[in-house]
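Chain X:
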Amino acid sequence: MTFSHDTQIPVLERAKRNMSVHVEGESLTLNALAERFPPERCPLDAELGWRVRRLPVSRDVGAFDVLILWRRVHGEWSCFFLFSTFDPALTVRALPRAWK
């Protein structure tokens, strides 16, 4: 994230689930954030078969978005996270496709 903020080059990178972010004045791990946004609260991307939620968050390096991505693995929903510094005008559907 520091690289992106220093160079103004957007990045999309996978994040560890135990990382903490600040959202709406509260510090939460990404796991805790996923508990607030389970698969049924995230819109389905029919083409990928994933459920995706994009949220504005921050860390000490600055503000960015986190994507909570839910996908079925052996019939069970499993999530992973991406940090994005891409312009919010870029659709949430485009980001997982770019990463995948």
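Chain Y:
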Amino acid sequence: MSVGMICQGRHDNGNGAMHGGMICTLADIGLGKAVRLLRNRDRPPDAAVTISATIQLDVSFCGRIGVGDFVCTQAIIKSMSRSLTFAQGELRVGDRTVATMQGVFKVIR
């Protein structure tokens, strides 16, 4: 599962690069989408969708995302219990890793 976006001027931190808060938001969305897909993959059509909330998110910045760059997430699920899901991944610009991320998600419904 991957999500991505083009860094636009409105995402700028004032130094021509994507703001750290935007990077964290994209990391959360990317991990969360992977969790939602996995949690609901075997769901019968008439069953309620399982929803999870982020209870921990760690992001390490290791590269620059400039205005005009396309950045995308790559996420995997590391493990899952009845109520918790552990995910990790990367944000990438082309073949460059610009951030690493990991999160814990709790089933809330």
